[in-house]
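User: Before I run my own analysis I want an independent prediction to cross-check against. Here's the chain; please return only the structure tokens and, at the end, one sentence I can use as a sanity check.
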Amino acid sequence: MDRILVTETIAEEGLAALRAAAQVDVRTDLDKAGLLAALPEYDALVVRSGTKVTAEVLAAGTRLRVVGRAGTGVDNIDVDAATRRGIVVVNAPASNSVAVAELTVGLILALARQLPQAHGSLQGGKWERNKFMGFEVRGKTLGLVGLGRIGAEVARRARGLEMDVLAYDPVVSTDRAAQLGVTLATLDEVLARSDFVSLHVPLVESTRNLINAARLAQMKPSAHLINAARGGIVDEAALADALERRVIAGAAFDVFSKEPPTDSPLLGHPRVITLPHLGASTVEAQMLTGVDVAEGVVDALRGATPRYAVNAPFVAPEEWSVLMPYITLGRKLGALCTRLINEPVRVYELEYLGELAEVSQAPVRLAVLQGLLDGVCEQRVTPVNAPLLARERGMKYTERSSRDAEHFAGLLVLRAIGADGSHDFAGTVFRDEAHVVEVDGYWVDFVPSGALMFTYHRDRPGMIGRVGTLLGGADVNISGMYVGRMAPREQAMMVLTLDDAVPADVLDTIQGEDDIQRAVAVVL
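Assistant: Structure tokens:
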């Protein structure tokens, strides 16, 4: 009979599901040495966030077939080491969706009616009815940054409150948005038009300080900002300054860049509601977490594919040498497409040309989906869960293959089709290294790695020198430069590979230069 070791407290419903399938030992007293000594006897390990499942721990689990994380993230698990050892990693990403969505709606109502402030006033012995004049949320516009699982739940509830809902999510289809009664828009439009802006994206490099001073300045003076997603998405110092200067009206935060937030400038501010990360703190969410992770662990022990597996699928050894660089390329093309295309995408087209037409294309397709979704989903995206997440967002894509790749040995093409036409991204492999050869219709050639900067600009003399001078003044070294253009003196794109990421203020300065329509910094 299979044996399962549980090292942290999970809901009784989850334990019951595990005990129905295997022998379960709950050992919440184990230190690292005790864990290493005990693991060789177990087929599965179930943890929360406190147990660090390192490569050393995984190596000690000589019988381990699955590790379950009772929660959303897997930051405490070395997923790569687990994958290398053939150990399935599962989590419970959907368990807290309703809890976080309900908390978000509660914060919207609390902001509109100043409920915490009014409560504090009455508890302090005052009766200040006139001081706490609120407003109705009916007819107001809610802007969602991210329309994944939690964002969709918030949208459903907001529609029930008769709110108009806008959303920015570059990989959600218009059909999916329409099903939810949501209008897709650019991030700039969401910020400018919304009475409430609620964040529902993960914390990755591209979303760190996504809401900064410049973004806050785009919002209405009467608008409110809500963050029940991840700390670090909002520049808290910039928000505190914006509140002091009445750039926006108020905010509500359940998460902080540092937790506990002992030195956050938001603490104690009269127009900010602060909570101690209560998003998943409901009886129902904790029960679902235990049940979901138990279901995944049991499925893995039975040899089935768990619903919420988070590590990569198997690639046949005979195809690995060809596929590996294209898998890397697929992730990078997807990430670039998400970062550079602002408009809603109706459908994606994938083309596998040349040598790619001769091998299994499924791993490459999964890598492209991962790249498109990573950075816009609430949970970690892997090739295992990318199809599920794509279906949830109503993403549409088509595929075709051809042995003809013109002068390339192989070519991977990702085409994003929106309302204003198509945006083509393409790449190939040269000496086992991924190269991007087309970005948004411009022909270039660079290795997609590290810090990058893209400019859309008019092809004018001196453009390269002007941008280079600004980067040099900020001590940002350029390691490579690639320029593509539609025609002489017409639209052009410049791609710079850099030794360091571009500081936000420098990017803003470059963006403000004459003849530059748009500048985007990306870290891959």
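Sanity check: Residues 317-340 form the longest helix (24 residues).
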